[in-house]
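Q: What structure does this chain adopt?
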Amino acid sequence: MTDNTYIDSSVQKVSIPGFSGCIKHTLALTQLLHEAKINHKKLTVVWLDLANAYGSIPHQLIQEALKHYHVPEQTRSLIRSYYSNIHLRCSCENYTTSWISLEKGIVTGCFISVILFVMGMNLILKAA
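A:
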């Protein structure tokens, strides 16, 4: 997608080779977790996403972006299946919710999710 200029790297820089972004942050965190584990050290990690960007991207926007960027139907179908089967539930001390289908948001830590996020946000940025 960068070779055919479908992604405008002057606007959106996440997960594009040669630019800083979430992938490098994830790799750095992965390394820290690995080092803490092998050295038997404690490590506290706090995730803070004030705007909840990853959690706000609708799955339908992902599908539109996949079409827009000419991703083959077989791949779009696989990604659609992956996202249509994500369910979650919340638990606290005395209560657990029923399973809830995730209809928007992407999976933090999943490599393809970062690419899908870039694709969706790039569509929004171009439209703006």
